[in-house]
């Protein structure tokens, strides 16, 4: 048995050299995830890319030829692919410069730190002179921009949020906006060794901790928590939080000493709560009309929060929505009004149910990584502005207090991501992808992004190459020796870039004369030597490679976030402009954005159940993270396929909504709005609130050949809107939009996406 790591857990496997013959969870994992079943079953699936391919029109007519996404591919040899791609890279860099290459290449790629696809592509493009990059993420792009203004750096917090063990011991009440989802906490970039969300919540409950889960989906918090379910309207959390704050303010429950010592701007926010600034008191009755949560329950909850050691935690999904800054900011404000920030088990959390690393003991050490080099190009985009950039070269836009201009992109290089999974309004993205001269994709699979490229290069999966890996803030560092040989002619991204850089005259810069195996050893030994100089001993590379993983030391097993600040805010100020928690931010106010003013507010989104658009599209689509795969990865794998209905992605609907439409479990249905439509397979379930259609992301986009707005498989991003969270953060809003749903009565179309695309005879 050899141990191997994925973003969703470690497993042990036996291989016959070509495929995995046995896979079982890593013995150290108390709550292993069935997602590991996807790996072996996907490895030799017909949708694996077996050799380099070039889109026919591009091959015949050159860069810029129309037909992207509609044409067959021509298989070519690696030599021919390298010749064509290096010629095109040379042309674009020479004629248009590095500012015309988008190498942002967002995406999670796979576990394993040396072969991390983004590190590889960025290093390669930096050797060529740089590229236009992206900033922030689809996961938490809104909070990443907001939080430094009002509380501090999110990435620092993620490694330092109060430990789950401290919550178990001290917390009496967790109010979880967006729930505490074990399926999301099962995943961490780079891997999770020990899953324990259910066990943690069961233990906290046994210790007297109560959970209130504010979410339209009951199973956003596991049964083990014994949570009270407040089934609020999606997108209305800010209103609920304002009403909780209003009760604290009006009924003398706010901790005024804490507010005076540790925060700025409470008065201006309180004037809004009290209706002094706009004539509307944000009381529970006001919030009931918006959220659907009874006013009495809101008032009582505010009292319960003030009487207990309370953790206010907000999931990342809430900020992946229009005006997503507001619930995050209000979570901070509520925790400040309760006066518990910096106390064990109290205060503010963000992402306890969103990723596995939050609340784990803070790890003291990083792991070896390949340097990406220096990118001399300053131009960037907030990651979710990809379509805007490609469609509007030269246009200006605002972001976080800056006025920026979209570059004119000629070549897009994607390695380790699937934009036709992760971006919103896929028909618009298709139009945007039609603009550049050339699109290059490396992937192991014929994802929709590969099918919308011109030059497609097959990469290996992690089980087909030597690597090592550790998840962010995870204590286990695993060797990951290759388990099988590569599928077809697939190559490691490193090997592809090594050869390309050689033919472009920058081979020495990219490889520094090393093979992948030499890099693994040298990076490890350098890391080990650095640690040794600081007094930490690690095994030699050979010992590490022959072993089953090493446990990395943690700095502080029972950390309490912001405890230093609480102890002495002058000696340990926050990194905000004032050093205090900013309930009113002069900086944000100074930007003058109507969609994100100087203190948190309720803003009515364009698409929510209380708005005019709900007359035509009366269901709120929740396009959340899937439970049977990570994003779109290995959608063809056995576990992902096991829940499909007639081959379509499952959509969940409350029994009342199903019967109102004459629908039954197992029916194929059509979801639609003005942007697009998709098929899905109906699952009737009272764990979803009425008024909701819950269709997770991840089904590979399978556009109808005559209508790219129609996905035959069930990708919700044909329905979601390409609108930013706000001008401040320009984050993704993929979580929510309005739709209608009806029975699908036509002949069920075949899925093209479960087979390789049409290919023509080999051309060399
Ligand atoms: P993945 O499916 O993980 O999605 O978007 P992301 O693009 O990260 O894509 C990773 C791709 O990398 C896969 O196609 C995989 O095959 C490929 N890959 C894996 N290993 C390698 C490798 O070694 N080399 C190469 N070349 N390729 C590799 C995720 C994004 O989606 C995220 S993070 C979030 S949080 C968003 N969430 C939502 C949402 O909540 N709602 C909607 N509607 N949309 C979302 N999109 C976002």
TrEMBL record:
Keyword Nucleus: no
SUPFAM superfamilies: ADC-like, Formate dehydrogenase/DMSO reductase, domains 1-3
Superkingdom of the organism of origin: Bacteria
All copies of domain Molybdopterin oxidoreductase N-terminal, residue ranges: 4-44
Residue ranges constituting the Molybdopterin oxidoreductase domain according to the UniProt record: 48-502
Gene Ontology annotations of biological process type: anaerobic respiration
Keywords, ordered alphabetically: Metal-binding, Molybdenum, Oxidoreductase
Names of required cofactors: Mo-bis(molybdopterin guanine dinucleotide)
Annotated signal sequence range: none
GO terms for cellular component: outer membrane-bounded periplasmic space
Segments forming domain Molybdopterin dinucleotide-binding: 619-733
UniProt keyword Oxidoreductase present: yes
Any one GO MF annotation of this record: molybdenum ion binding
Membership in a protein family: Belongs to the prokaryotic molybdopterin-containing oxidoreductase family.
Name of the protein this chain belongs to: Molybdopterin oxidoreductase
Organism of derivation: Nocardia terpenica
């Amino acid at each position: 048995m050899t141990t191997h790591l994925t973003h969703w857990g470690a497993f042990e496997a036996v291989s016959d050299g070509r495929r995995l013959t046995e896979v079982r969870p890593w013995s150290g994992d108390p709550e292993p995830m069935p997602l590991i079943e996807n790996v072996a079953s996907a490895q030799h699936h017909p949708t694996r890319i077996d050799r380099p391919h070039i889109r026919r029109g591009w091959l015949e007519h050159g860069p810029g030829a129309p037909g992207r996404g509609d044409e067959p591919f021509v298989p070519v040899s690696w030599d021919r692919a390298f010749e064509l791609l290096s010629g095109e890279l040379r042309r674009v860099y020479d004629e248009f410069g590095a500012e015309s290459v988008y190498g942002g290449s967002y995406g999670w790629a796979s576990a394993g730190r040396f072969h991390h696809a983004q590190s590889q592509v960025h290093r390669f493009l930096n050797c060529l002179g740089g590229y236009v990059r992206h900033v922030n993420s689809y996961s938490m792009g809104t909070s990443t921009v907001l939080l430094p203004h009002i509380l501090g750096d999110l990435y620092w917090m993620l490694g330092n949020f109060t430990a789950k063990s401290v919550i178990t011991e001290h917390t009496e009440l967790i109010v979880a906006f967006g729930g505490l989802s074990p399926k999301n906490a099962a995943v961490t970039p780079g891997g999770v060794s020990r899953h324990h969300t259910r066990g943690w919540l069961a233990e906290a409950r046994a210790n007297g901790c109560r959970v209130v889960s504010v979410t339209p989906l009951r199973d956003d918090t596991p049964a083990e928590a014994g949570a009270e379910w407040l089934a609020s309207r999606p997108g209305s959390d800010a209103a609920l939080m304002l009403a909780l704050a209003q009760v604290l303010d009006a009924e003398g429950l706010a901790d005024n000493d804490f507010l005076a010592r540790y925060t700025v701007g409470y008065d201006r926010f309180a004037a809004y709560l009290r209706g002094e600034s706009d004539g509307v008191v944000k009381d529970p009755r006001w919030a009931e009309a918006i959220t659907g949560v009874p006013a009495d329950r809101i008032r009582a909850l505010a009292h319960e929060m003030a009487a207990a050691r309370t953790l206010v935690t907000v999931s990342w999904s809430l900020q992946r929505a229009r005006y997503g800054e507001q619930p995050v900011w209000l979570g901070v404000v509520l925790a400040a009004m309760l006066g518990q920030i910096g106390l064990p088990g109290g205060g503010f959390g963000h992402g306890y149910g969103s990723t596995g690393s939050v609340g784990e003991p803070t790890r003291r050490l990083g792991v070896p990584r390949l340097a990406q080099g220096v990118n001399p190009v300053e131009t960037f985009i907030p990651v979710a502005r990809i379509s805007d950039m490609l469609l509007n070269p030269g246009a200006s836009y605002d972001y976080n207090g800056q006025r920026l201009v979209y570059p004119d992109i000629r070549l897009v290089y994607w390695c380790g991501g699937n934009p036709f999974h992760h971006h919103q309004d896929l028909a618009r993205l298709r139009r945007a992808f039609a603009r550049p001269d050339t699109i290059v994709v490396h992937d192991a699979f014929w994802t929709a992004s590969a099918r919308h490229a011109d030059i497609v290069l097959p990469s290996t999966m992690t089980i087909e190459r030597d690597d090592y890996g550790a998840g962010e803030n995870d204590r286990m560092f695993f060797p990951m020796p290759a388990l099988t040989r590569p599928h077809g002619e697939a190559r490691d991204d490193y090997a592809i870039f090594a050869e390309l850089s050689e033919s472009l005259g920058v081979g020495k810069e990219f490889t520094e004369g090393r093979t992948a195996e030499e890099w693994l050893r040298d990076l490890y030994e350098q890391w080990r030597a650095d640690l040794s100089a600081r007094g930490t001993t690690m095994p030699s590379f050979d010992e590490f490679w022959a072993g089953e993983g090493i446990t990395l030391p943690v700095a502080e097993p029972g950390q309490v976030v912001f405890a230093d600040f609480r102890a002495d805010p002058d000696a340990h100020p926050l990194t905000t402009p004032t050093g205090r928690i900013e309930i009113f931010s002069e900086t944000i106010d100074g930007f003058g954005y109507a969609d994100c003013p100087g203190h948190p507010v309720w803003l009515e989104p364009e698409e929510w159940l209380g708005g005019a658009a709900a007359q035509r599209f009366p269901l709120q689509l929740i396009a959340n993270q899937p439970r049977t795969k990570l994003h779109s990865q290995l959608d063809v794998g056995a576990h992902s396929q096991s829940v499909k209905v007639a081959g379509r992605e499952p959509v969940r609907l409350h029994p009342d909504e199903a019967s109102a439409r004459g629908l039954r479990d197992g029916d194929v249905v059509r979801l639609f709005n003005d942007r697009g439509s998709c098929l899905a397979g109906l699952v009737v379930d009272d764990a979803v609130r009425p008024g909701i259609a819950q269709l997770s992301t991840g089904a590979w986009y399978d556009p109808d050949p005559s209508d790219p707005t129609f996905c035959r498989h069930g990708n919700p991003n044909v329905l979601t809107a390409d609108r930013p969270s706000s001008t401040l953060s320009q984050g993704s809003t993929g979580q929510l939009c309005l739709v209608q749903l009806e029975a699908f009565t036509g002949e069920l179309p075949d899925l093209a996406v479960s087979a390789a695309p049409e290919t023509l005879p080999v051309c060399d």
